[in-house]
Amino acid sequence: MAVAQGFDRDRLGRYQIERLLGRGAMGAVVLGRDTESGRCAAIKTLSLSDEFSGAALNEARQRFLREVDAARRLQHPDIVAVYDAGEDDGLAYIAMEYIAGHDLLRHTQAGQWLPLPRVVHIGRRVASALGHAHRQGVVHRDIKPANVMIDPAAGVVKVTDFGIARITDACRTRTGMLLGTPTYMSPEQLSGQHVDGRTDLYSLGVTLFQLLTGALPHRAESMARLMYCIVNETAPDVRTLRPEVPPALAGVLAKALAKSPEARHADGLQLAAELDAVAALWPSHPLTWSAEAPAVGTPEVDAFAATVTLSRPDPGHNFGL
User: Fold this and answer.
1) Given the DSSP bridges, would you call strands 15-24 and 11-12 parallel, antiparallel or unpaired?
2) Which residues participate in catalysis according to the annotation?
3) Worst-scoring range by mean pLDDT, 40-49, 250-259, 302-311?
4) pTM assigned to the model
5) Do 121 and 233 sit in the same domain of this protein?
């Protein structure tokens, strides 16, 4: 009998399943407990046999293990740790550090914006984490507010889902579906060109822009038009939407959102250093806060979301795959 309603098993490998955390288009996310160490883990599942068969299934299984192995090598205080991975009766799973907080998506909504200094501090830490990953040869490919977890009271910032994007890319290619939105993708990623760590820096730029303004740099009435804008049109100055943003921060964002990778920061450490210099404008601002932001009503729906039906919602670390 399943422990969590909506999940059909009570164990994955050595993990006892305690409850269902969420479900996405390609699998579930459950809270599990390691029966050997007693440690809790957020476990993401992926039914490879539902997506592939024959030789393609074997290739997908090997790709899954390679990507997870690469993610496990990342040892950084601001990257969610990957504990374990395996396959249990046809269901592949990744066990990772469970964060008792929430993702940044709520802070893109009016009424729940974070103070400017805190956005800068979060951006600096994410950029530093990306710099570490890129030095290890790991590109995230899916940086967005839903993939950055925070625990405000503890001052925790964690980038999650390293390796997940590449694992799901094979399924996207096979089915011809675009899962989610291209909102945070770099121009080169949307164009199918080779990508390196600078694609993540662009995506972080989009994320910071949205955290500061509640809006995206590019919005359109169709997916085709949105993709065209991302590839071809210069992002607006963030100060046109939030005038109190310091010129130095606006300059950092403009550089991160440059169309050409060569015009962006050379790496995450350079971006982190520039954000650190901006953070010096608020030397005494605390990085933690004890109270949650007040609840707000449903945010205004942008034109893209209102006109395009997506294959899945945009999930966070503990809520989907």
Assistant:
1) antiparallel
2) 142
3) 302-311
4) 0.83
5) yes
